Structure formats: C-alpha cells, structure tokens
C-alpha cells in the first residue's frame, strides 16, 4: 500500500514588531524529504504540488533531502524541482552531510534554490525586507551562529532555517523571531510514553509542533519522507507540508 500523501498543515505565527506589510505572509516549509528507495517519487511530487497549491510567498527547505547513498543527490535534482515562490531557500541536514553535502547542495542550486550556509539573506516581500537566516547543520557540527547572524539587521524580523530543533534555545538568544526545523519525523513511529522518553534520551527534546522561547517561536515539522522504515504511525507523525502564516503580535 502506498503511503498517504503529505497533508498541508497551516499555522499562524505571532511576531512582535512585524512590519504591517508582512501580516499574512505565507511561508511553506518542506523538510526531511529523503529521496531514494524509502520515499516514492510520487510522494515527493505530491509534497511539491501541495506546497505550490498553498500559494506561498516564500518556500523554505530545512534539510535531509537524501538518505544514505551518494547517487541520491542526482534524485534530488530530478525530483525536487518546480517549487514556486518569490524565493526558495534551503539549508542542509545531517543526512546530506553523511551522504554528499556538496552534491546535494549542487542539486538544490540546479533547481534554482538558494542554499544558505551560516549566512543571512534579505528577502523583499510586499515591499518590505525580511531577514532569512540559514544555520548549517548542527548535528554534524557545521553550524556557526556568529557567521549566520553577522549580516542580520538588529531590528528586522528574523526567520531562521535550521535542520535540528534542539538549536532553538541558542537561536532565541540571537533574537530569532521564528525558527523552522525538522529532523525528528515527529518520532515517525510514535508510541505514547515510549517514543518521547527514547527521543529525550538521545537529546531530541522537541518532537513536533510549536514551542515558545520568550518571543521566539520554534516550529518543528514531521517532514515529508521516510527514513529507516517506509511507515509513519502515531499522533503527530503524518507527512506534511507546513504553511506558516506571519501575524503581528
């Protein structure tokens, strides 16, 4: 039986000091796509179609585009094209570095997507600037927060892409407004009372959904694809394309 297609999950994010022109801005997030033998190409395509149908202003990709095999970088090139938004921005995840970081980054760039490696870019949306901060993968110790935030204007709204959600407390100290992460798959196989305990034992404290650190919001998506097994079950594990709608606090 083929897996259920990714659902669209829409959430409002309240941000203090948000420029009025950004009220209602839509950011689509796709993560943990894991192209290859675990995730059918049709499943990947369904996620891209769902993201486009949500009519986002920006699309962010938050890592783990491959599983374990070097040739999967070519599948990224073949399967992940066609996302439509003013800007499509990406960071790498641990599986990308385990496999072939340079090859995965090149495949993303081939499709016209911008890969941020510890850097900030300014996205003009509705005539007003947003700081988009890309933090390279913390799991494989490629992150450098000083470099990532060096060009982020102090008083500008900061949206942060970072594969691993457990970096969020450190990102909150840098005055991030919204952190978008993946990595956990929502537990992928979730059994209440067991999965959370096992995840915390290996240092994964944020399974899925919204978390608040002062004025910083973290959103952890369970992602699109599959790793280890070709199933997802249990609360909060459903494959999704997240749509985060910015609202003034």
Describe the secondary-structure layout.
Elements: E1 7-15, E2 26-30, H1 41-53, E3 58-62, H2 72-79, E4 87-91, H3 94-99, H4 101-110, E5 114-115, E6 119-125, E7 128-135, H5 145-149, E8 158-162, H6 168-172, E9 178-181, H7 195-201, E10 209-213, E11 216-220, E12 240-248
Parallel strand pairs: 1-12, 2-3, 3-4, 4-5, 7-8, 8-9, 9-11
Antiparallel strand pairs: 2-12, 6-7, 10-11
Helix pairs in contact: 2-4
What's the oligomerization state?
single chain
Helix/strand structural class: alpha/beta
- With strands numbered from the N-terminus, the spatial order across the biggest sheet is 1-12-2-3-4-5
Q: What best-fitting shape do the alpha-carbon axes yield?
A: globular
Query: Stretches where pLDDT falls below 50 for ≥5 residues?
Result: none
Mean pLDDT: 96
Biggest pleated sheet: 6 strands, mixed
- The top-level CATH class is Alpha Beta
Count of structural domains: 1
Based on the structure given, which CATH architecture is correct? 4-Layer Sandwich
Helix content: 10-25%
Strand and helix order: EEHEHEHHEEEHEHEHEEE
């Amino acid at each position: 039986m083929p897996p259920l297609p990714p659902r669209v999950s829409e959430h409002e994010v309240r941000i203090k000091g948000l420029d009025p022109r950004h009220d209602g801005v839509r950011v689509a997030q796709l993560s943990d796509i894991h192209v290859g033998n675990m995730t059918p190409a049709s499943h990947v395509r369904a996620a891209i179609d769902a993201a486009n149908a949500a009519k986002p202003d920006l699309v962010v990709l938050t890592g783990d585009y491959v599983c374990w095999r070097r040739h999967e970088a070519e599948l990224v090139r073949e399967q992940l094209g066609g996302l439509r938004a003013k800007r499509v921005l990406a960071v790498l995840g641990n599986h990308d570095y385990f496999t072939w970081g340079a090859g995965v980054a090149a495949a993303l760039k081939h499709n016209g997507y911008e890969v941020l490696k510890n850097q900030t870019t300014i996205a003009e949306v509705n005539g007003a600037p947003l700081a988009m901060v890309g933090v390279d993968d913390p799991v494989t110790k490629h992150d450098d927060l000083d470099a990532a935030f060096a060009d982020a204007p102090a008083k500008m709204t900061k949206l942060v892409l970072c594969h691993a959600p457990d970096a969020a407390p450190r990102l909150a100290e840098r005055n991030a407004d919204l952190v978008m992460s993946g990595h956990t798959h929502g537990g992928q196989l979730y059994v209440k009372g067991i999965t959370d305990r096992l995840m915390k034992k290996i240092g994964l404290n944020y399974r899925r959904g919204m978390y608040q650190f002062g004025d910083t919001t973290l959103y952890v998506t369970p992602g699109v694809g599959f790793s280890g097994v070709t199933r997802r079950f249990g609360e909060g594990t459903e494959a999704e394309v997240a749509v985060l709608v910015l609202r003034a606090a």
